[in-house]
Amino acid sequence: MSTDKLKEIKDISASCAEVMGGGIASLSAGVLTGFAAYGGATMFAAASTGTAISTLSGVAATNATLAWFWARGRGSRCAVR
User: Whose CA is closest to 69, among 44, 51, 57, 59?
Assistant: First the structure.
């Protein structure tokens, strides 16, 4: 194998590592954004009955949070039902 081929392989592997690093960073940012949105809705939002979602638990809290997002046009209609 020539030194030019080895350099080319090294460059390709370096660019693959950069792409993977960027992908992992993007995935992490997306996950953290989702957690922050869900946590913020749980902490500050109110269910349709006026009860603070933070005081609910279990399925009631999950359904109230999903309904809160759906009412604002951010959630899936199927996820609430």
Answer: 44
Q: How confident is the model at residue 22 (pLDDT cuts 50, 70, 90)?
A: confident
Q: For residues 59 and 78, what is the distance between their CA atoms, to the nearest angstrom? A: 16
Q: Write the single-letter amino acid at 66.
A: L
Give residue limits of the domains in the chain. 3-80
The beta-strand segments (E) located in 12-53 are: none
In this prediction the pTM is 0.57
Q: What DSSP assignment string belongs to 50-80?
A: S-BGGG--HHHHHHHHHHHHHHTT-S-HHHH
With beta carbons less than 8 A apart as the criterion, state whether 67 and 48 touch. Answer: yes
Question: Is pLDDT of 40 > 60?
Answer: yes
